[in-house]
């Protein structure tokens, strides 16, 4: 199983990025998926999660209305569209997959598979 994130980078405050997570070795249509982030000196926190069907999503309060999570099972890819970025969004972003649950999962411990991360840096 392999999850590979891409799309991170350096952007000015107010800008946008779209992260992608390409998954191999799993049937993505059967998995709950999520995006997490970790800033230096802080714990890993959920950014957005999406259920197996895509009908249920969860967003952290800090990104609600600015970020959008989506999935394309045909392409085995998870996306995170990030708009109106703020310096506080600076972190390493990770995608995760769970193949034994179907909901929009907020807890890191519920995911079995993780990518290596992609860095997002927002300058003020």
Report on the architecture of this protein:
The protein is mainly beta and 124 residues long. It has strands at residues 2-6, 9-12, 17-24, 32-38, 45-50, 57-59, 67-72, 77-82, 91-98, 113-114, 118-123. It contains no helices and 11 strands. Strand 4 (32-38) and strand 5 (45-50) form a beta hairpin. The radius of gyration is 13 Å and the shape is globular. The relative contact order is 0.32. The mean pLDDT is 95.
- Helix count, DSSP H or I runs of 4 or more residues: 0
Q: Summarize the main sheet.
A: 7 strands, mixed
What coarse outline follows from CA principal-axis ratios? globular
DSSP strand count = 11
Radius of gyration: 13 Å
Indicate the proportion of strand residues. Answer: over 45%
User: What is the average per-residue confidence, as pLDDT, rounded to a whole number?
Assistant: 95
Could you estimate the helical fraction of the residues in percent?
under 10%
Q: Could you give the order of the helices and strands? A: EEEEEEEEEEE
The structure class reads mainly beta
Q: What is the end-to-end distance?
A: 37 Å
Unreliable stretches: none
